Amino acid sequence: MQFSASWLKDFTNPPVSSEQLAHELTMAGLEVESLITVAPPTANIVVGLVREVTPHPNADKLKVCQVDVGAGDLLNIVCGAPNVVPGIKVPCALVGAQLPPAEEGAKPFLIKLSKLRGVESQGMLCAARELKLPDETGGLLILAEDAVIGQDIRTTLNLDDKIFEIKLTPNRADCLSVFGVAREVAAITDTPLQALTFEPVQVECADTLPVNISAPDLCGRFSGRIIRHVNAHVKTPTWMVERLERAGQRSISVLVDISNYVMLAFGQPSHLFDLNKLKGSLEVRWAHPGEQLTLLNGASVALDQTVGVLVDEQGVQSLAGIMGGEHTAVSLDTRDVYLEVAFWQPDSIRGRAQRYRCLSEASHRFERGVDYASTVTQLDYITRLILDICGGQAGPVDDQIINLPTRAPIKLRVARANRIIGVPLSATQITEIFTRLGLPFEFSNDTFLVTPPSYRFDLEIEEDLIEEIARVYGFDNIPARAPVASNAMLAKPSNVRPLHAVRHALAARDYNETLNFSFVEEAWEHDFAGNTQPVRLLNPISSQLSVMRSTLIGSLVQGLRYNLNRKAERIRLFEIGKVFIADATMPAGPLNVAGFAQPLRVAALAYGPVFNDQWGTASRWVDFFDLKGDLEALFAPFELRFVKAEHPALHPGRSASIECDGQTVGWLGELHPRWLQKYDLPKAPVLFEVDAQALTQRLLPKASEGSKFPPVKRDIAVIVDQKIEAQALLDELQKAASEESCQDVQQITLFDVFRPQAESTGEIAAHEKSLAFRITLQNAEETLQDKTIEGAIETLIERLVRVYGARLRG
Question: Is there a contact between 45 and 152 (Cβ–Cβ < 8 Å)?
Fold first, then answer.
């Protein structure tokens, strides 16, 4: 919202500077983004009247002007502007005048006595751009005929006026007008507010246009009238053009300018139809599928039943509350107009302008809510301006009240207001604040019952009124007090590792952290999670980000593609974030939404060589076992089990589920070949995703005495069918180690796997494999004897033979 200080003073004139007023507005919730002067400083520039213009004797494009600046003798000034003619009043820079510099930071431009092609010039006639004002003509700035000759141009054009630019929050639609801001200023500074006054409109024409409102959920109130015999060729008054320009609007034509002026002044959009282009009566309804309309901006839009329209016998003529149609637009040839001022239901306008890409000042206001009680007043004011400027005859007002909002009274308890604000305010002080704000109220038993005005759509609950009290009382006046509650540091369990330590551990293993949106493409959920029913967003920021993720894999793959497209060769990524899974058993909580689980996951991806090229190590592509080692290091001292399993995102023969302490905590594997092709990846990355809670758990260290006796190591090699997993044999050996004869077994490690390459006739058949295990035995109290060692080894071998049919390799 942009406006000039001089326009604001028409309604209220507080005894404070513009800078102080900007601070007061900002502290009251109407943030002033900028406060600038209309034009940079100038000096010695006055209003001059061009008395005579003659050709320059030595230059075809220059003219010699005799200019009256009210100082007696005429000034001889050489000018090259194409629009200089006798009788016009223009800004005249006298000798010694200072003009704004051409570039910011440069010195002001000084006017000196000079000769141009042999003719003396005693000053300069100025264009708008030389005063740093908006310029559309390119010639001299022509002043109004009533401008006083010799008057300082800053006074004539009010160049010391200030322009406020306010950043409004969406709830403050009541301040989308100069009068609305003035209403706030009057309340904040406790100064009088000048209401709108104008001469009543006399009805001189009996013509009316029938209007049928068939959609009460679209239009709450409709006011209109016919105005005949207007002169649309009249020039818009200078004062109105100036105010429009300083509010960020350019002058278009007198009828359009009047409509825009009233909208900016009082926040009520209106629309003018060329009456002679309408046929029959008007109807307000929802559009029919397939209807089309060419808008004022030239765009053609296809309509559906969710947008409101105004139609006549020819078809759709306007998008309700958004933009009028090109066919019935007023022009310089318009003689008769139909003026419409309506209240459109905010819910019926909200989002439609954005959908049709025709955002307008009107839709911006209607979708937030306008004052439905003042449509007739604004209709009469626009009519008065048209009659005074363009002439004409006004018809009677047709005012239809169909479906106005119901504004229920709001209860405010004084004690609660004091508790929320933190300042003991009396009922008398609150009464004064409500009176300054213009809020009707009743008071009894220390409770206010406030009825929101028709222009305040943001007042609905008690907290809204408390905010109003705090704003007008002044946030600067509310003391800053330290919290009275005692704070104590909470002890952190020693067996829980913070996630920040997990981040450090992953970064230490050469991974780079990424941060991604929690909403993703729906295809990612299908591909990487096998999720056909993802959690959908009701209002996605884009069609590609329409569902909540249930896995981090898609985000990592996207990060991999981003880096590969930028010629990266070795990529290590990880992310720690929440995933979202529909779970009807999940109750609501401070950080939970009922029906949705939000577990925290840790995922990582590796692509490219294990190490950068170097002389000490041969180049090797990262594989399953590299990330397996990273996982074991992250979970240590917990021991992990990797069980062959299939996952929608992973290669069916190169993937495994991860188990820790008997619980499945995640997945590890290569990306599925199907997704390599779909997502255009040259080689398969290896990745894992684990539950963050499992990763943050850690075992507390236990002290134990080191053995003084040396350990004993024995190797055993067994032959089993290739279908038997090595992990199954390890699990069985661990079970056997719990028997009494194996109490000295400290560690069991698989260190060799052999599979025959072709049909074998030797010890190992083609369908078999050889697994070699290293057994470490140690006793803390004595040196192990051969009998004890052999007994333990025999027990282990016997277990494998009995359970899996293994046999010792010779």
Answer: yes
